[in-house]
Structure formats: structure tokens, C-alpha cells
Amino acid sequence: MDTRKTTAEFRMSQWAKIIQSRIDSGLSIKDFCQTNGISKNAFFYWQKKLREKACTEIEVAEKTRSIVPGGWMQLSQKQDRTSKETLGIEINGCNIIVNAETDVELLKKVCRVLMSL
After folding, report:
1. What pTM does this model have?
2. Which residues cross the membrane (predicted)?
3. Number of other residues whose CB lies within 10 A of the CB of residue 101
């Protein structure tokens, strides 16, 4: 058993509780430290250590996480995807169909005419 590692993990867990207590209290760091007899330098030191540990754990998790479950095969995405989405506008029996290929200038002119009616 590695006592140094165990001690470090214990300290980290204790400081995590202290930092969470500060957040829950709603006090500023200065006021919380004064009230609880904690050095601001120690508070910031352990807060930095906990953040670094959390970031390291996230990086490791992302590197080891497999996007494709075991036994499955990754298929390439279909590259030729054209948007077939359209927008239909009907005003007093006048129908306008707009899609990605619609000329924007023409659409602006049509909108100006419709607004003037």
C-alpha cells in the first residue's frame, strides 16, 4: 500500500469538501477563509490542484472513450448530403416555396412587394 498516494487522495477529498462548503456558503473566498481559519494561499493552492486533477481525468476519459462500442464497426458518413428542406409561405392564395437554391435578392424583392400590399 502506497501511503503517500493514499494521503494525497485523502487531502484532495478533504479539500474538495472544504471548497464545496465555501461554494454552498455563498461567502466570498476571503470571508470564508477568515471565518474558518484557512489560509487563502492554501485554499487557492488546493483549488488549483483539484482543477488540474479534474482536467487530467477528463482528458484521460476522452482518450480512452471509444466512440464505437466494442464489436461494432465505424461506417463513414455519407458525404453527398444536399438539403431538400423547403419553406412554404402562403398569403391570400399566393404560394411561395423557398429552399437553399432560392435567389436571396429575388426573395427580398418579393418580400418588399408583399409588405407594400
Report:
1. 0.51
2. none
3. 8
Alpha carbon 90 to its chain centroid, in Å, reads 39
Task: Please tell me whether residues 59 and 99 are part of one structural domain.
Answer: no
Rg of the chain taking only CA atoms, in angstroms: 30
Q: In terms of Cα–Cα distance, which of 67, 65, 18 is closest to 43?
A: 18
Q: Which residue(s) pair with 94 in the sheet?
A: 91
- What pLDDT digit, counting tens, does each position of 30-44 carry? 999 999 999 999 999
Contacts of 33 (CB under 8 A, 6+ apart): 39, 40, 43
In this predicted structure, what is the pLDDT of residue 86? 84
Both 53 and 8 in one domain: the answer is yes
